[in-house]
Amino acid sequence: MADSSFQQEFLATHNSYRAKHSTPPLKLNSELSAACQEWADHLLEIDSLDHSDTKDGENVFTMSSSADFKLTGKEAVDSWYSEIEDYDWNNPGDSESTGHFTQVVWKESTELGVGFATNGKTAFVVGQYRPAGNMDMPGCFEKNVLPTGNS
């Protein structure tokens, strides 16, 4: 279960990345977190990574090892954000290889939920965003996925 320190680290990592893109910080939403936790528990139970049927935006992450490990909230967000390397700033839009990144920094998203489930050797993290990002309508990516101040 996503305890308070996991939630706070998950939120802080999102907001640190969002600040680089001149995007307002997200606020933790307990309703979203409850839905995320339920889905993370389900993923652990079926031992498979999949998206829920939420109408909110959603990022999912898994990690496993033959030895016990402790996953942090930062690691999941770092993984999603690392997709920035593949984002085509000259041709903004939705892409399977960058959808996690664009959801993390999506300007119009204002609320965040998080769920975390582990058995010690496998972990699942679910993040949900409201309003959902990655809306593929003309101009949406240009307006919501802003380059960093250094670009």
What does this structure look like?
This protein is an alpha+beta fold and 151 residues long. It has five helices and four strands, in the order αβαβααββα. The chain has helices spanning 4-20, 30-46, 73-81, 99-105, 140-144; strands at 27-28, 57-64, 111-118, 122-130. The protein has a four-stranded mixed beta sheet with strand order 1-3-4-2. Strand 3 (111-118) and strand 4 (122-130) form a beta hairpin. Helix 1 (4-20) packs parallel to helix 3 (73-81). The longest helix has 17 residues, at 4-20. The termini are far apart.
Biggest β-sheet: count, sense, barrel? Answer: 4 strands, mixed
What distance lies between the first and last C-alpha atoms, to the nearest angstrom? 37 Å
Share of helical residues: 25-40%
Question: Rg, please?
Answer: 15 Å
Count of distinct strands: 4
Secondary-structure element series: HEHEHHEEH
Give the CA-based shape: globular
Strand content: 15-25%
Which runs of at least 5 residues are low in confidence (pLDDT < 50)? none
